[in-house]
């Protein structure tokens, strides 16, 4: 017979899988000898068995009875005793906290007879009948699905009859009458009487807690929080204690340190003559925990010593609930406490200083996501008004500025602006650089605006689809509110909220520190972040490089701790005022025209590379040859079509638009993502890659002549077959051999086409390094166009539980990750010295960084603002994990 | 020391890898005791070593000398002997025949002194000097890269000086003078004298044959013919024999059966007093081989017995070259002869009847590609004029008809028409069905026109890009020629040729037979095809199903031998006059409108399924739920944009176009291939899949009530994660349970997203069958949009040798095939009874069918016209292969 029930004295805090978090911690406190009311926990195994079959597993209730008898003996009270009844609380408690998601039933054991005993024992008749009516109400709703309104109506009627406004105005007689009314409600909705057998009450309560695991709201919460559905909940049955038995009673919650800032010293609230739910309901105002020192010095001292003991025992911030019943302190719950991102860093280093944990353990107490939160400016919470609308929180941080509707306006502005667009494209880049933040009405977290903004570390709210943008009229309309060109808005990319007017912003002290601001060096948070990052750097195995296309980006990346550039995109060097040259290249009618366009681009590309190599002197700079499809450099087909049709309808000459339209039609592709781009362009357009290779080589030679240490590498995009890479390598090596003074330049490839991963052993024969382009690998491996799918059906997919998080945000370890593992393994087998990195956006995602550590990569590369996050997560992945440490998720 | 040189008596026909085809067969004939001039073969190993290092491997020339001494002893002649010189031919010969691609040098050994000996021995001074001048010319061009024109100029000058028109007019003295001129040309271009050392001539000739392996034209040929570049060529050195020494001499080529029809009886040409190259040059007319019986009865008899012996020895049609030198027959070459597709089938069954090979071996003598050729109507070769243009040979067969420019015209026509379009789309389907053939100016082998035409078995020429189609004017212009609406053209989809006017067509007797025409049952070819297909059916392990969407297609598929429908696409049931309902579905503003549209579609879908299930009664019909993106059912964005812009510019109301444009914009996707389609549609559009599942179930129930045996299966497209399939299965099973009288319906999935293959073990837990969609798997695995890439860069990729054949035509076994193997293995591991098939276009491609056999699939599914091909190839894959059988490629 399986063991389904554990007395509190039998469990311990490491049995969370079996007993849930609450049960395991109650057991732990009981074992520590702390004053926990007697009780027992029914395991998650029992819950899973119940949910699978619809009935409790054989023997479970017998075990419950056995443990109940022990409790009765210990307390010298009996369940249902008409003179001195034992009352029970029945509470859910899964492995992971799901606050408010599942059911609790209090005062189990009250019946028409035992209520009399409770009244006698407590000496408070009103309290006894109020408890009884609460049980019927809670039991009816939870166990028997009686609609809550039915009880509310009866309560309201009782108050009207008594001529009182609040529940507390009802006296004993009225409550006795209300109990009768409640029993009628119960019967009317269930067709049976409220159960007068206390054991039946207990059994039904336990089963209803099991069932509450699969309630709609619990399932939704688990999907959001990425908690597996198959875990199930445990059920804790505990003797009731009462904080509402007069002046010597009360209840409170407390933290062992301040969970908001991490400051040392206990922190909490106490409410005299009240139950726990009264604190939650906020019926009366609680007092600071310190006041208990005056109210009840003995219990305060006992509580302080208990909390100190718990913190040392759990080796972390603890969060507790307690009740004082007529002068006796009872511990009702403890757990490792939730805290803000700032508090997490501060507390982790405090615990190191106090000798409680090691630095390795401290790394497991913080997360990259928390560090990310700390790196963005934030609105002052005290001064935040009601948001106008909420869109997709696409790139975190707070920004305030005047509304502008196009890139040129943004560039021309000499004050802070917010660029507002339906959606952005590469042409908006100058405006995005100039603006404080970006707001769009279309696209999701992987839209162009979102990706570029995150790359820049700039706040962005996307897909605010109730915005009606009329760029010509210079207005945005939201539910009747009209915002005009020049009006000030504030956007919060961390929450997706958009505010009218200017909300005060506080810059991130962490970023100020990275940027070299000495004023923040004394800040406790900054010191804590610095210390944990330094430790992470000391132990991590993954290198951290930056995705950076310009010298300023490269400089910032160095300040943020990058050990090189893992992805320098050359397409951004083809935009702006160089676009005209690119159009010439695309429209070239013959070799001469094409060569002329390439010749004109060469010195510009070379100058770009000189600057970047200078900024990254002594560190590798991996330069990707041109990747995007050509149509991205020309106006949109739809715009040109409309322009030409309009001109022709009016009898005008469409002029250059006609020429461009022909070119765009010629190169138009149904699925440009899967078309002529990357290495394919290089193999089809004579001289294109050669121009880029020459620019890189000549830039390196210039730097060498200047006495510097340039370390460029050439990366070929979109390779699917080794023959493609061989063809490019052949041409590049021949060209490099003709240029004087060039340092050694390694040639490698992106692994971003599934076939490249599947044939990595072959490709490694021609590649000195691999860099996973996990964005494209995800697009092709799942068949998801990032431009299309996030907005269209990812929401529905998350609802359906098909995935908990977008695979563009966190790498899909099972599917796409398998391609990564295949390629690492087979690439290294073919060429043991192969360098393997990743330069997709996943390179800066905390969970993905840990995956890449496990997969054995050499480095991750990410946007400059994510570098500290990646450093921290790489350190966490490598840090020794003590068994007792509860990891931050 | 490696052995680099094999005397002919040392080799045999199975050493083709080492000795090349020609060398191995010369050795085989020598071992059989046939009259082969003495000689030896230098191995492909030596060639590879030479090509890798640029010099002959150590010891090779010493071995050549040793074998040469043996030849000299055997013939009692010496190389360079001034009285009776041994002369040598030096010929290339790789593993696979590459006719005319590499070099041959004849008469090696002639020098200023040995030419005199040749004259004396042959008694023909003119012959000797003509041979010498030919050697200088051939050697100069081949070994020393002297331009051919330089020799031509000298020859022309000699003819002018002699006052003769033809080479044959030059006498001995003039040829002696020409030799001097040739030597001057040689010196002028090489800076050295023509080598007078015969051994040096031989060494240089051997090396130049090695080098010719890597000539441009040889490399191009190998790419086209898919011959690996690393094989290298062998070199055959043989004593010269001369067919041009007067009346008792001659030369000929012969086949042991008619290579065009397969008819029994030798077949060939003979030319008296001539060398082999004269036959090729066509200077004089050859006579039928039979005439040799009168000219030289003894040698004719010897030749006949030799050919009979060779055919029995090789157990196949042989092709030979021979020379008679002054009454002595010499065999100069033999090989298994090339033959037409028809001859291949006829000869294979003849050889079975003659007891020479088994039926299993016979299957290896024919190919699916050959059977494919036999299934299309063809133009009468005797009556074919010059083509007007040549486009892409997109779907084989011959068709003649009047030019029409749109689908409606084609449908309305009551005679044969050719549909001429820039490109086609699903709306052209009725016109394509009505037309005899399709001609487009855009798109390649995987364009819509090509894919649909192949599916229908209808001739199609695509991408004829010099066609200037003006549908409004009703004209097509090609290089100044104007074809008008109603003019007759003939198109040959097998060759891509387009002819003006009507060319006579012969229907395929094989297809007539499948279609039940009794008139062709006596045809030798039809009997041979039938017999080999029956044998293939008896031994194959792969089932063959059909891709068919309509009852007529299903009926045809059954006649062609399909054992079920592997892919019934439901999207075709959403076109034509049902499009209006689909527009309502897409434009639906609320649930009620959407439900109304679905309710209207239900009976139409149900009726479709009833018909198909009837046509395939008793066999499985795998029905794929709706797959394509919704925009395919609406007008094109570009068209609507232009229409609306035009209307607005003119102040008109764009009306419904405005509404459609809004909808198209709303659902517009940058990469629809990777967007909202397949299972994603089903999960996002409430009721869509449910309507289809209901239609299938109700159709099956109707058939069951009619006493039939319907076997529908439901296939879910584009699944990437098991959760998607589970969601659909959950809904479908709940729905099926509500409909009475439904037979068991299996639910399975396409495996067409790479992630599905990578997580096949999970997916198999919810799938009763897998069907590989290798088109999409190729698109996503390579990152190739089939609509875009074939026309844009596949040509260049083939040139570069990145692939020899489009991966959309033959499955890429290494990359995409790996996904297939992973999915088969892990799917079966998770569910041993899993059925696994393929329904991409590869299911009908011969080489791919063999891959699917090896990968362990249960069946392939292909368009009806490819079913016999797949049956044959599945049989070939299973057929026992005798070691001695040379397989058809």
UniProtKB/TrEMBL annotation, chains A, B:
Residues the record marks as active site: 448 (tele-phosphohistidine intermediate), 839 (proton donor)
Family matches, as InterPro entries: ATP_grasp_subdomain_1, PEP-util_enz_mobile_dom, PEP_util_AS, PEP_util_C, Phosphohistidine_dom_sf, PPDK_AMP/ATP-bd, Pyruvate_phosphate_dikinase, Pyrv/PenolPyrv_kinase-like_dom
Enzyme Commission (EC) number: 2.7.9.1
PROSITE patterns the UniProt entry points to: PEP_ENZYMES_PHOS_SITE
Keyword Transcription included in the entry's annotation: no
Keywords assigned: ATP-binding, Kinase, Magnesium, Metal-binding, Nucleotide-binding, Pyruvate, Transferase
Cofactor(s) listed: Mg(2+)
Domain PEP-utilising enzyme C-terminal: residue ranges: 528-874
Catalytic function, reaction form: pyruvate + phosphate + ATP = phosphoenolpyruvate + AMP + diphosphate + H(+)
Keyword Mitochondrion: no
The Pyruvate phosphate dikinase AMP/ATP-binding domain, residue ranges: 17-53, 60-285, 292-344
Single GO term (MF): metal ion binding
Binding annotation for substrate: 569, 624, 752, 773-776
Enzyme class label: transferase
Residues of the PEP-utilising enzyme mobile domain: 415-496
Gene3D superfamilies per UniProt: 1.20.80.30, ATP-grasp fold, A domain, ATP-grasp fold, B domain, Phosphoenolpyruvate-binding domains, Phosphohistidine domain, Pyruvate Phosphate Dikinase, domain 2
Residues annotated as binding Mg(2+): 752, 776
Cross-referenced PANTHER family: PHOSPHOENOLPYRUVATE DIKINASE-RELATED, PYRUVATE, PHOSPHATE DIKINASE 1, CHLOROPLASTIC
NCBIfam families according to UniProt: PRK05878.1, pyru_phos_dikin
Family statement drawn from the similarity comment of this UniProt entry: Belongs to the PEP-utilizing enzyme family.
Protein name: Pyruvate, phosphate dikinase
Lineage per the UniProt record: Bacteria, Bacillati, Actinomycetota, Actinomycetes, Micromonosporales
């Amino acid at each position: 017979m399986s063991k389904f029930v554990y007395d509190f004295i039998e469990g311990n805090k490491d049995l969370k899988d079996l007993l849930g978090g609450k049960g395991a911690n109650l057991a732990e406190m009981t074992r520590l000898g702390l004053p926990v009311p007697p009780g027992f926990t029914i395991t998650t195994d029992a819950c899973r068995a119940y949910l699978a079959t619809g009935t409790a597993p054989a023997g479970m209730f017998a075990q419950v009875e056995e443990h109940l008898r022990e409790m009765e003996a210990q307390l010298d009270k009996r369940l249902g005793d008409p003179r001195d009844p034992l009352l029970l609380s029945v509470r859910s408690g899964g492995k992971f906290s799901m606050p408010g998601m599942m059911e609790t039933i209090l005062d189990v054991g009250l019946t028409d007879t035992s209520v009399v005993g409770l009244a006698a024992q407590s000496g408070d008749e009103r309290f006894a009948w109020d408890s009884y009516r609460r049980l019927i109400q809670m039991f009816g709703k939870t166990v028997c699905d009686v609609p809550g309104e039915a009880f509310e109506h009866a309560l309201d009627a009782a108050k009207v009859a008594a001529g009182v406004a609040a529940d507390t105005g009802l006296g004993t007689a009225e409550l006795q009458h209300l109990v009768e009314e409640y029993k009628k409600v119960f019967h009317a909705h269930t067709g049976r009487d409220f159960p007068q057998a206390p054991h039946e009450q207990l059994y039904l309560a336990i089963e209803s807690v099991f069932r509450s695991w699969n309630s709609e709201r619990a399932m939704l919460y688990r999907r959001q929080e990425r908690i597996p559905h198959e875990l199930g909940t445990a059920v804790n049955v505990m003797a009731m204690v009462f904080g509402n038995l007069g002046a010597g009673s009360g209840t409170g919650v407390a933290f062992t340190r301040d969970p908001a800032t991490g400051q040392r010293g206990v922190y909490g609230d106490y409410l005299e003559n009240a139950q726990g739910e009264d604190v939650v309901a906020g019926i009366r105002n609680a007092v600071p925990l310190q006041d208990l020192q005056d109210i009840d010095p003995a219990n305060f001292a006992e509580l302080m010593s208990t909390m100190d003991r718990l913190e040392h025992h759990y080796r972390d911030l603890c969060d507790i609930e307690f009740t004082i019943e007529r002068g006796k302190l009872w511990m009702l719950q403890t757990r490792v406490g939730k805290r803000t991102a700032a508090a997490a860093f501060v507390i982790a280093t405090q615990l190191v200083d106090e000798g409680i944990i090691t630095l390795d353990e401290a790394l497991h107490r913080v997360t990259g996501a928390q560090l990310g939160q700390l790196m963005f400016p934030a609105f002052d919470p005290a001064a935040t008004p009601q948001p106008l609308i909420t869109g997709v929180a696409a790139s975190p941080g707070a920004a305030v500025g005047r509304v502008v509707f196009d890139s040129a306006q943004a560039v021309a502005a000499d004050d802070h602006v917010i660029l507002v667009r339906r959606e952005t494209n590469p042409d908006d880049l100058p405006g995005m650089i100039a603006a404080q933040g970006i707001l769009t009405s279309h696209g999701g977290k992987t839209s162009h605006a979102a990706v570029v903004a995150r790359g820049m570390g700039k706040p962005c709210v996307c897909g605010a689809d109730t915005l009606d943008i009329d760029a010509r009229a210079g207005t945005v309309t939201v539910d009747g509110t009209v915002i005009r060109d020049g009006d000030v808005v504030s956007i919060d990319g961390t929450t997706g909220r958009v505010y009218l007017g200017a909300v005060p912003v506080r810059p991130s002290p962490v970023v100020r520190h990275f940027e070299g601001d000495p004023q923040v060096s004394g800040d406790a948070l900054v010191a804590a972040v610095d210390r944990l990052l330094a430790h992470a750097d000391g132990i991590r195995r993954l290198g951290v490089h930056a995705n950076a296309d310009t010298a300023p980006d490269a400089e910032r990346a160095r300040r943020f701790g990058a050990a090189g550039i893992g992805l320098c995109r050359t397409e951004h060097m083809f935009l702006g005022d160089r676009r005209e040259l690119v159009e010439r290249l695309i429209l070239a009618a013959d070799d001469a025209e094409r060569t002329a366009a390439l010749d004109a681009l060469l010195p510009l590309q070379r100058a770009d590379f000189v600057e970047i190599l200078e900024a990254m002197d002594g560190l590798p700079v991996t330069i990707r040859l041109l990747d995007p499809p050509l149509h991205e450099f020309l106006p949109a087909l739809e715009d040109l079509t409309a322009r030409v049709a309009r001109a022709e309808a009016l009898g005008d000459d469409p002029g250059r638009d006609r020429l461009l339209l022909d070119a765009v039609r010629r190169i138009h592709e149904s699925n440009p993502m899967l078309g002529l781009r990357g290495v394919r362009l290089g193999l089809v357009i004579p001289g294109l890659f050669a121009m880029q290779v020459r620019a890189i080589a000549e830039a390196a030679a210039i730097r060498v002549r200047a006495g510097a240490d340039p370390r460029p590498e050439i990366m070929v995009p979109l390779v699917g077959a080794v023959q493609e890479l061989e063809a490019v390598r052949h041409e590049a090596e021949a060209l490099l051999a003709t240029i004087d003074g060039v340092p050694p330049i390694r040639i490698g490839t992106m692994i971003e086409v599934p076939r490249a991963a599947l044939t990595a052993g072959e490709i490694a024969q021609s590649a000195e390094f691999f860099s996973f382009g996990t964005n494209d690998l995800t697009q092709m491996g799942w068949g998801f166009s990032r431009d299309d799918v996030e907005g269209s059906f990812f929401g529905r997919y998350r609802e359906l539980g098909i995935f908990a998080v977008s695979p563009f945000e966190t790498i899909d370890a099972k599917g796409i990750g398998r391609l990564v593992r295949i390629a690492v393994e087979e690439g290294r087998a073919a060429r043991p010295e192969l360098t393997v990195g990743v330069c997709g956006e996943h390179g800066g995602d905390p969970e993905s960084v840990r995956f890449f550590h496990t997969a054995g990569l050499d480095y991750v590369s990410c946007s400059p603002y994510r570098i500290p996050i990646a450093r921290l997560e790489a350190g966490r992945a490598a840090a020794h994990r003590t068994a007792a440490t509860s990891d931050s998720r």
